[in-house]
Amino acid sequence: MRGIAYADVSVETFATAAVLPPEVQFLLDQRLPRDQAGSLFAGRAWWSVVLSDAMPAGSAAVFVVCKAGDHVLALVPLLRRNGIAALESLTTPYTCRYTPLFATGLDRLTRIATMAAFGRFCRIRGVTRLDALPAEWDELPDLLAGVRQAGLRPLRFNHFGNWHEDVAGMDWTSYLARRSGALRETIRRRLRQADKLPDARFAVLSTPADMAIAADAFESVYARSWKGPEPYPRFNVAFMHATAALGLLRFGVWSIGATPVAVQFWILEAGHATVLKLAHDEAFKAHSPGTVLTALMLRHLLDEEHVDQIDFGRGDDDYKQGWATQRRQRIGLLLVNPWRLSGAVELMRHISGRLRAAMRKAPAGRGSSAAPGPPRLAMDIDHDPKIERIRRESSRGDQTGPASTQ
230 and 189 in contact (C-beta within 8 Å)? Predict the structure, then answer.
C-alpha cells in the first residue's frame, strides 16, 4: 500500500492475540526473510505462551493495531502495568527480538505515517519503552521519523548483545577449525573423555511425544544447577511444548547413567538455530557437562540439520564469544512526551546522564588549543543522516500531521 497520510491512520486496541481480527492474525503468521530469522518471537505460539506464563503481576497486554480503512498496516504488542502510567513493549526476559509488525508491501512514507499514528496513541503517556529492537532493523528509521511527527522524543539505549555466526555450508569439522586453538583443544579433550564414559548418553528430543522426558530433564537439571529461580517458572516448559508442536524444538540432553546432567533448549527456525536456555548439574562439573553438550549439540545441528546460523540468544556472557564470532546490538527506545511531567522528568534524567558521561570523558589539562565541541547529549540519535533524510521526505509527503519536533 502506498500514499497513506498520517491523518488516514486509525488505532484500535485488543487485550489478547486470540481476539485479533483475522486480517491482523495474518501478521502473526508472516515469515521474516531468511537472514532475519526471528518470526517465532512474533508468532501466535509465542504470544500465547507469553500471555499465559510470562506476564508481570497486575499487568495487561495491549495489542495496538494501526489501520487505514479496512487495511491493516501494523501491529504493536505493548504492556501496561497496573498503577504505572508508562507503556512498554510486550517483551520478556526470554525475548530475543522485538519489532512492530508491518504489513507487507508498505512504502516508506506509509510506514512513517503508521508509526506517527502509533506515536499519537503513545502521546497520552509520558513515556513508552520499547526494547529488544535489532539495531540493524531496516524499518527503525521509519519508526523514529513517525514518532517524531507525533511530537515524541525517541531516546536510545543499548539493551543487550546477541552473539551469532553464519555457518552456512560448514560441517562440524570446518566449524571447529575456526575456533581458537585453546577452545579446540578443550573440546577435543572433553569429548574424548566423554566418549570413554560407559554410561554417558546424548539425545536430541524434538517431538510432542518426547515432551514428558524433556520437561522432567529440564526441571531436574535446572533445580540442581548454579542458576537462581526463573522469574516465570512455567514459561520454559510451556514454550518447549509450543515449539515441539510446531516442529521447531531441539532439546539436547546429556546424561550419565540414569541422571541427566546437562540440558539445552534450542529452537530451529528456517535454518537459524537459537539456544534459549541451558543448564548443567554442578555436581558433575569435573566432566565439563556444559562444554560437552554444547559441542554435541552444535555437531548435531551442523552435520545432521545443516543449519545456516547459530545464535546464542540474549547477553554477552564470556563463553559465547568462543562459540560464535559475530555480535549485534539489541537496543531500546524511550518514546518521551516532553509535555507531560513524567516525560519531561525522563528527558532531563537522560540529558543529565549524557552530560555526566561527557564530563567523565573530557580530556584533563589545558594542552589542547582547540576548544572542545558541545557534548552529544540525549539527542545523538537525531543526527543520523539517514533518519534526517527520511524525516525531510516524510514531511514533504504528509502535510496533514503535526510538525516535527526538530
Answer: no
